[in-house]
Write a structure and sequence with these properties.
Layout lengths: L27 H12 L5 E4 L6 H6 L4 E5 L3 H11 L6 H7 L2 H19 L1 H15 L5 H11 L25 H4 L1 H9 L8 H6 L6 H15 L8 H19 L15 H10 L4 H18 L7 E3 L7 E4 L2 E4 L7 E4 L8 H4 L1 H8 L35 H14 L3 E8 L3 H9 L5 H9 L3 E15 L2 E16 L5
Parallel strand pairs: 1-2, 1-6, 2-3, 6-7
Antiparallel strand pairs: 4-5, 7-9, 8-9
Helix pairs in contact: 3-12, 3-16, 5-11, 6-7, 11-12, 12-14, 12-16, 18-19
Length: 483
């Protein structure tokens, strides 16, 4: 039996998160929360080593001091907005939040500049989306919307299109903004205005044109917030986190950014139009309020910190073996690594670009055309070795040894039987239980290792209603390396 952690007084309501593969909102209540309560006393220091959507870090902040790390910058922004709050300053920060007052001037300045450049295209988009919202899903509407989405020279480095825009085209006035020279200048100095990253890279691909212009204008206003305010860092982080949440749930892809939808099928066009009627500014205000409420309901301890680095940067490999090094002693490490060969940097690259706001160079195929997914160059995207079948076991071993070396307990989340390491164990040792093989790996440095299971139905990446177990590998009583 796990400790009770579901009283209204002790736990804030479970928050909504960005759309995220493997988010732990389903396994926190009555499973993961109980294991954490069993293994870490109130006030202990917990590390969320790969924090992702920050669902676990935000939960832990109500009970523990938390160090949250993720190699992706957008993940750090989200976790920082939820856990990095000084208990003595938090109330004043929350009272200071007023998005309209803080952002309005810079937002409207950027908005007007982009609206002028995209006036004809915005008018065309508005007409088409209004027709769809009024119930028009005719063949003619589909043809008209498809034609609009395929207009030439609508984004920077348009795939497969050469030469200047035709005279009178919808995007003629924006061509100077979308040129290679213009984007290179933004890449050199992202503070140039009007900010246009989302509009130049993703309009009519992952977001509607109007949506992209509003996202850019909000991003510019957040970046231009004065640095002199007593709550400047927290305020900028809060609003950027709200914008990342909006971008996540407003994508007109599916629930991520691995690929945009195709426009060949009428059903896809209708799905695009439905997503592109979302009011970005209204949703931004909603998420700002949601994050503020979560912060208000959380009983933060002092000393919470967030980081954005590969986990190996926290390892000190001394004479006694590897050890995780954080700013203070650690009682428990929570590890939620990628489960499959899918690299998260491909699925959430738009959020990473929006967080960094750096106008990256885009990946191209052998012919020089930008890929449909409009990914930053591969060299600039993080590739986790937990996603490589040749490296995944050693990655687990590294975390196990470093965590034990720090004298901390370890709780690992993983999926059975679909986790990449478990599949590798089945391939290599078909006669053995793969979960037991993982448990034995953990016993290299822990005296006691138990496995707890929670059945789940999984859908995603080609799997539909697949029965899996979410497993927690709970490692206690760390010991030194063998001589």
């Amino acid at each position: 039996m796990h400790k009770a952690v579901d009283s209204v007084e002790s736990v804030p309501r479970q928050r909504r998160t960005i759309w995220y593969m493997g988010v732990k909102t389903r396994v926190l209540p009555n499973f993961l929360d109980g294991v954490l309560a069993d293994e870490a006393p109130l006030g202990a220091t917990v590390v969320d080593l790969m924090s992702g959507s920050a669902a676990v870090a935000a939960h832990c902040a109500n009970h523990y001091r938390v160090y949250a790390n993720d190699v992706q910058r957008y993940a750090q922004v989200i976790s920082s907005s939820l856990i990095e709050h000084d208990p003595l300053r938090k109330s004043g920060f929350l009272e200071s939040l007023d998005a309209r007052s803080a952002l309005d001037s810079a937002f409207r300045s950027n908005l007007r500049a982009l609206e002028k450049l995209y006036a004809r295209a915005l008018e065309a988009e508005e007409s088409l989306l209004k027709r769809h919202a009024s119930g028009d899903e005719s063949d003619q509407w589909c043809a008209d919307y498809r034609r609009f989405l395929n207009q030439p020279r609508s984004v920077y480095a348009t795939t497969g299109q050469k030469g200047p825009a035709s005279h009178g085209g919808l995007y003629e006035e924006a061509q100077a903004l979308l040129s290679d020279e213009s984007i290179a200048a933004y890449r050199h100095d992202p503070s140039r205005r009007p900010a246009c990253l989302t509009t130049a890279y993703y309009a009519n691909i992952y977001f509607g044109l109007r949506q992209s212009i509003v996202i850019d204008s909000l991003r510019a206003a957040i970046e231009d917030l004065p640095a002199s305010s007593i709550h400047a860092r927290e305020t900028r982080t809060h609003y950027l986190s709200a914008l990342l949440h909006v971008a996540s749930i407003s994508t007109s892809g599916t629930s991520h950014f691995a690929q945009p939808r195709h426009t060949t099928k009428d059903s896809e066009l209708k799905a695009l139009a439905a997503r592109r009627t979302i009011d970005i500014f209204e949703r931004f205000q909603f998420w700002s309020s949601e994050i503020a409420l979560q912060v208000r309901e959380t009983t933060h301890l002092s000393g919470n910190q967030t980081f954005s680095a590969p986990y190996r940067e926290f390892i000190n490999d001394g004479s006694q073996g590897p050890e995780l090094r954080f700013p203070g002693p650690v009682d428990l490490v929570y590890l939620d690594p990628p489960y499959t060969a899918d690299h998260y940097s491909r699925f959430y690259h738009v959020l990473e670009v929006l967080a960094r706001h750096d106008y990256p160079e885009l990946d191209r195929d052998a012919s020089g055309s930008v890929l449909r997914g409009r990914y930053p160059k591969l060299a600039g995207r993080f590739q986790s070795e937990f996603c490589l079948k040749t490296r995944v076991e050693e990655e687990f071993r590294t975390v196990v040894h470093a965590t034990a070396g720090a004298g901390a307990k370890l709780v690992i989340s993983y999926a059975s039987p679909t986790g990449l390491l478990l599949k590798e164990y089945v391939r290599r040792f078909p006669e053995k239980d793969p979960v037991e093989q993982l448990r034995q790996l953990c016993r290299e440095r822990y005296e006691t290792v138990r496995v707890e299971r929670m059945p789940l139905m999984h859908s995603g990446q080609g799997d539909s209603n697949l029965q899996i177990d979410e497993i927690l590998v709970v490692c206690t009583r760390p010991r030194g390396p063998k001589a």
